Amino acid sequence: MKKTEINEQDQLELFRSGKVSTAVMKNAIPAMIAMMMVLIYNLADTFFIGQTHNDMQVAAVSMCTPVFLLFMSVGTIYGIGGVSVISRAMGEGRPEYARKVSSFCMWSCVGVGILMSAAFLIFMERIMTIMGVSAGNGPELWNYVKSYMMIVSGCGPFVLISNCYSNVLRAEGQANNAMMGMLIGNLANVILDPVMILLLGWEIRGAAVATVIGNVLAAVYYLVYFAKGTSMLSIHPRDFTLGEGVCRSVLVIGVPAALATLLMSASQIILNGRMVEYGEMAMAGIGVAGKVTMMTGAVCIGLGQGVQPLLGYCVGAKNWERFGSVMRYSLCFAFILSTVMTLFCFIFTPQIVRAFLTDEAAFGYGLRFSRILLSTSFLFGVYFVLTNTLQAMGAATPSLIINLSRQGLIYIPLLFVLGELLGMEGLVWTQPAVDVISLLLAVWLYLRVYRRMAKG
């Protein structure tokens, strides 16, 4: 038996017959840690920028976050789409097909990443205007946003690769290696932030440079992992193909998943555009409030992503009894986890907000907005397990519906309605209302898909 075949058997044994609680935890915990590190590095940017005592720079970083999410979302197309197709192929006993899917994801990230970087650099000022940044907001804010975006936009391929393969590696049972790449990149960012922002005095430009270096290191880690030759997957150009249903299979799941991130970026840009009417301190407050709730959101996203390949393997193998056991355990754990995280964030909201905002007006906004957004964050765990399960099942249309709805079809119209009715408070209360509606939709879609597939 070849070495790669032995590795394959060892790596997938946990998916096939390992104890359910062990299988869930061994896949979910590394993914949750990786997502927490993503959050920490996002918080680090805001925290160390806050130490400059320039809340205008805090507002600028918050406004740039949706743009960086655009790059991450494209990596998600190939990462979530890839892990769904690969895990089901493994369950069906088709490792060669899985190798082709993996190679397709790599070279798509390289090509698309280069095109995105070029587009952002060429159309920078037009994009900034769409984001709600204009000379009317003051030249200081304009210059801060532009300097950050000019630097970060240049690392497109590395952002795509790091976000893609932090997902894809989990499809072959390599949750720890998937986590390690993200840890290396994000730790580097956190370490470099105080050096470049404060010690070297580069301020917001230092945050951007640290972000670029972190993503480059993460991408290099995954490339080295494949270069060692121990993976059952491939990034070699000879395995690249657009045929055999590879491209379509990845995109049909990946695009709906990426739409969630893209629409999150779009909705954040729209929210920023409405919130700027209430002043720059309100802008800084809503940016920090979003980071407070993401402490719960990041962990729950990691949990959902962690169990996805395990559920996908069960779907491919048509082992519905094991699928049900994994699902029940994951949902119970998700609800408990998100409830505990929400309580922690609610209790320590003043301390968390104060770490980022020094201006009293901005702090007041941040505290009030955070408490509103936390009112429904205990639902995050169940929601993200359900949405990742739909992706694991290869349910393209339901995945598209749920991802279009949460931050798009439901959020954006409701934002304008509540904004008109309740003013600034209505803008903030939009997200909790959407959280409840989207969870109910996710439950309904999951039950429909599960009943159809299990009977089939």
Number of strands: 0
What gross morphology would you assign? globular
Q: From the alpha-carbon coordinates, what is the Rg to the nearest angstrom?
A: 21 Å
- Helix count equals 18
Instruction: Kindly estimate the percentage of residues that lie in beta strands according to DSSP.
Output: under 5%
Helix/strand-derived category reads mainly alpha
Number of domains: 1
The averaged pLDDT comes out at 88
Low-confidence stretches: 1-7
Walk me through this protein's architecture:
By secondary structure, the protein is mainly alpha-helical. The protein has one domain (3-455). The chain has 18 helices and no strands. Helix 8 packs antiparallel against helix 9 (204-227) and helix 10 packs parallel to helix 17 (411-422). The longest helix has 38 residues, at 280-317. Mean pLDDT is 88; it is low at 1-7.
